[in-house]
Each structure stands twice: as C-alpha cells, then as structure tokens.
Amino acid sequence: MALRNALGWLLPPRCVDDYLIRMDFSDGACFTAGLSKALGYGVIAGSSLVKVPQVVKILGSRSAAGLSILSLLLELLMYTTTFAYSLANSYPFSSYGEATFLALQTFIITWLAITWKSQPLGVAFSAVYVAGLAVTFSPVMPLSVLYTMQTLNVPIMLVSKILQIAANWRNGSTGQLSAITVCLFALGSTARIFTSLEETGDNLIILTFVLSTLCNYILMGQLFYYWNLTAPLAKQTPKK
C-alpha cells in the first residue's frame, strides 16, 4: 500500500496498475510520465535551497556587490507571475512548485540588497510586494491578465539575465554570485524544458525555460571564466 501511494505521486493510476499488478514495464508513456514527475519534484526540492548559498554569501560579506537590484526585482516578478499563472491554470504542482521557493528566496535577497542601501526603501519594498501578492492571487484576478503577465515574463526574464551578464562583464567579475546557485539553476531550467513539454504542453512556459536555460549557461560560463582570471591573481597577491 505504501509503495502504491508513493508511485501515485509519480504515475497515473493506469501506470501504477501496470507496474504493481500486471508487472508490465514496457509502456514508454508511463516511463516518460514517471521520469517527468521525478525530475519535477527533484527540481522543487533543489529550488527550496538553491539560493541559500547566495543568501549566506551576502550575509557573510555584508555586501550585495555585483548584484543588480533591477535584475533581482525583475526576477522576483517573473517567479511570482509563473506561480500565479500556473496555479490559475491548475497545472500539476510538480511542473511549477519551485517558483514558490524561488520567489521567497529572491525576495529575501532583494530585501537585503535594498535595505543595506536604505532601510525606509526596504520597508516600502516589502509593503509593495505584499500588496502585489494580494492582488495577483485574488480570486477575481482574470486569467487573461495572468496570461498577459506570463507573456511578459519572456522579455522580463531576458532583461533580468542580460542585466546580470552585463554587470559581470562591466565589473570584470561575478561579485557575490554563488557558483553553486548558478549551476543548479542551469541544471534545473534544463530539466524544466522536459517536464513542461510532458506535463503542461504550454508553449509560453516552454519558451521561457528554453531562453532561461541559455542565459543560465552563459552566466555559468562567466563564473568559470572570471574565476580562472582572478584565481591566479589572488595567488600572486602578497599577504600583509
């Protein structure tokens, strides 16, 4: 019974019967569905902590140097919109659940970055975001509005990523960006292309993940590029 319940999280009832009762493992559709669910929940589990290294790094240095606040704000808007849009369309939680955790962690990072510049601005930012959540998740919010917001996520995501890529290039380093965070994002967005194709078939979301994956790998390339440039210099710097 426990095994059946566990498989029920990953497979349609027909596939559970095929596996447990008929011992038939030849159905490719069942395998694909199970793989998609497993990847989806894996992405959600990883996303629950994916930005924690970033938060720890910022708190440890007491600096948000190298991070673009505008980029963070756009990223926060993107995750919040994806969560609201997917929830309104009744998509499986396994296809979008990470948006919840990413929005929360991005909010914390953005709040820290803004608050260290100005505490009143940090308070104002928090109030505006909470008010925005109340409106976005309101039962009277038209689905057409959420669709428009999700459509805008594509250019928003691109601008957000490009701003960070440009900031890295301008600064000649990746600042407080965490290598673990960026690498997990790249892998997670790659997996999301497959799970979105399998579970939602929503071309808008699929396009968003394809472009996001491309940008994430560019950021990952910058991390390794600038690390290779700065590591030798750090070794040559004499200790005082």
Automatic annotation (TrEMBL):
**GO cellular component term, pick one:** membrane
**Matching InterPro entries:** MannP-dilichol_defect-1, PQ-loop_rpt
Q: Does the keyword Protein biosynthesis apply?
A: no
What is the top-level taxon of the source organism? Eukaryota
> Where, per UniProt, does this protein localize?
Membrane
One Pfam family name from the record? PQ-loop
Give the principal location in a single coarse category: membrane
Q: Is this entry keyworded Repeat?
A: yes
Residues that span the membrane, as ranges: 67-87, 93-114, 121-139, 206-227
| Family classification | Belongs to the MPDU1 (TC 2.A.43.3) family.
Question: Know the name of this protein?
Answer: Mannose-P-dolichol utilization defect 1 protein homolog
